[in-house]
Every structure is written in C-alpha cells, then in structure tokens.
Amino acid sequence: MTTMFRKSIIRIGRAPSVFIATTLATVSSVLFTYAVMMFKGIEVSEIALTLSILAPLTIAPFLFWPLFSALVKIHHLEMEMRKLAMIDALTGVMSRRAFLDHAERSISLARRSQIELALVYIDLDNFKTINDVYGHAVGDEVLKCFASVVRSVVRKSDVVGRLGGEEFAMIIYGAGKESVRQLIEKMLVEIRNASVTTSGEYAREIHFTVSVGIAYLDLKDSKGVDQLIAQADKAQYEAKHSGKDRVVIYQEA
C-alpha cells in the first residue's frame, strides 16, 4: 500500500500531490465540522465553517510537503539500490543475479515467439597469472578493459553479465547462428587488439585473450538457463583446452 502511494506521488508530482491532499483535508474538515454540529444540535455558524476551511489550508501544506518529499527521496533511494544490485560495480555489466533473471525471461520469450537465442560463455585466459604477476589492481583493469571492448562490439539488444571472477556470459537474441559466430569472432579480434598498461618505472603493455563457448537454445525442449549455461560452459572448457583464444560451439553428444 505504501509503495503504491509513493508511486502515485511520483506519477502526479509533489506539488500537485500536496494540493490534492490539502483539498481533501479541507473538504474532510468541513464535512466533519458540519456533521458534529448537526449531531449535537448546534446551529451551523459561518465562523465554525470558515475555521474548518482555514485550519487545513494553513497547516496541511506544511505537513504534507516534507512528508511527500521524504517519500519521494525513499523511492529514489530504492531505485538506486535496485540499479546497483543489477550492475556489477567493477565492470559495469549486469550482475550475476540480474543476468540470470534476464536470461530466464529471454529464454521463455524466445520459446513463445520461436526466435533464435544463443548463450555465450566467456572466460579470460590466464587471468590468475595476470593477478599473480601484476597484482589484483591490474587484474581489475583487465576486467574493465574486457567489459568495455565487449560493450563496444555487441548489439544494443544483447545482454552481458558477469557470472563471477573472470567469467562472463552473453545473451544474443534474435540472431542466426552465423551472425552470432561472426559477432563473437569480431569480439575475439577486438580483445586481442586491446591492452592494459601498467604504471610505475617498469610500465608495460599487457595483452589478454578469452576462450568462448556458445550454446544455442533448442526451441523444442524445456531446458532453462542453468542447462544452457552448462552447455556453453562445456564448450568454453573445450576451447580453453584446445589452445585458448578461440570459440567452440556446443554439440550434443
């Protein structure tokens, strides 16, 4: 109820909401005053009715404005918290939870609409070595650089999420298998060309690569996001162990 009330204030606006609330308070005051006087058999006087109008008109705005302002502030804080919960703070892509929720909805929509969907699993190659040799601060820069490259390559309709550590995933919706493969191959090229420069006296340029697995949604079965991720992860594992810096498409045994 409180949430609906806050949303109404946001939709209408603070000033109009205060005006409406003050008007309702004034009307209620007049009706209450009139009812009490009639119940007690007191003659209705203009002074009493005037006071019943002036009192809420004078007091209500000073009460409602800070109250509604606080409710609006709470609403904006909640929206900001939800946004922060959906975004990975380091890389700027979707958080694991937000990505999985979005992927599940996309899979359901793809089945209902009979539209192709691919889940792409990406793992940075030799990331532990980068952390061990150059430190976690450099490792974080590599992750941010990677996420920036991916966002520059994918379409606006594609969704990227960080599943944890150096593991990422993408949902590519409404694209044919060849288009998906071309997109990923382009991403691999862009990542090879990207680099992070360390600071300090012995600064150097660090290049990195990724291994990628792709799983395509079978529109005839009922597998969910967990199964699709498992398939893409298995294909990524094959890419990793067949030389890295490549893409492998999942194939049913």
Q: Which percent band covers the strand fraction?
A: 5-15%
Number of structural units classed as domains: 2
Helix content: 55-70%
**Silhouette:** elongated
Would you identify the CATH H-level superfamily of the largest domain? Reverse transcriptase/Diguanylate cyclase domain
Mind explaining what this structure looks like?
The chain is of the alpha+beta class. It folds into 2 domains: 2-84, no CATH class; 96-249, Reverse transcriptase/Diguanylate cyclase domain (Alpha-Beta Plaits, 2-Layer Sandwich), CATH 3.30.70. It is 62% helix and 14% strand. The chain has helices at 2-12, 14-39, 46-86, 96-113, 127-134, 136-153, 177-193, 225-241, and strands spanning 117-124, 159-164, 167-173, 196-197, 205-206, 210-216, 247-249. Strands 2-3-1-6-7 form a 5-stranded mixed beta sheet, sandwiched between helices. Strands 4-5 form a two-stranded antiparallel ribbon. Helix 1 crosses helix 2. The longest helix is centred in the first third of the chain and has 41 residues, at 46-86. The chain starts with a helix and ends with a strand.
Compact overview of the structure:
The protein has 8 helices and 7 strands; from the N terminus they run ααααβααββαβββαβ. The two termini are 53 Å apart.
Could you list some keywords that capture this structure?
253 residues; alpha+beta; Alpha-Beta Plaits; 2 domains; five-stranded mixed β-sheet; 7 strands
